[in-house]
Amino acid sequence: MKITFLGHACLQIELGTHILLVDPFISGNPNASHINIDKLKADFILLTHAHQDHILDVEAIANRTGALIISNFEIVTHYQGKGLEGHPMNHGGSWTFDFGKVKYVNAIHTSGFPDGSYGGQPGGFIIEGEHKTIYIAGDTALTQDMKLIPMQTSLDLAVLPIGDNFTMGVDDAIIASDFIECDKILGYHYDTFVYIEIDHDQAKRKFYEKDKDLMLLEIGESLEI
Ligand code: NI
Ligand code: MN
What we know:
Strand content: 25-35%
Bound molecules: nickel (II) ion, manganese (II) ion
Oligomer: single chain
CATH class: Alpha Beta
């Protein structure tokens, strides 16, 4: 499984021949101006919630690629109404797609669309494929619900928000890493806006002091698990 960070909360995941795109917010991210959304490949687009900084480029990319949108019922219905293909899910539910299995799990956040219309409840994803399992938390507070995850699965990597203000910050993400029993963390949802700027070295050191590994990728950089 190859994971490429495309800035903010956007990830591209390569699973065999399948390409998944998570929360595409690229054209509005000045730090990601070197990423061209017209060249991005996607077979599936996974959306954690309906906020602008997670959905901005969905229509452009889905219209061009025909990617299947996977999200909560309300978000998928919204895009189906615009003629796009979708697979609706809701919290606690799993589905096996061509690339592997996805579970939509709880997140504590909000999920209105930019125009104020209802975007259902926000979530995260557990994705299993090629004998690896990752957790993408989405925008969320630290929550006891995270303790449910290791009861059923053993994570190889977790992607956690660390920017604070709108989501968990570094200290809560360290506790989340205990709750999910995964010490290999890819941080996201930081630095894009003034409210979520963080000190990278301090964040990494805090994880290191708890025997955990916080990875921060450059935009466009990949890791493989
Ligand atoms: Ni959000
Ligand atoms: Mn966000």
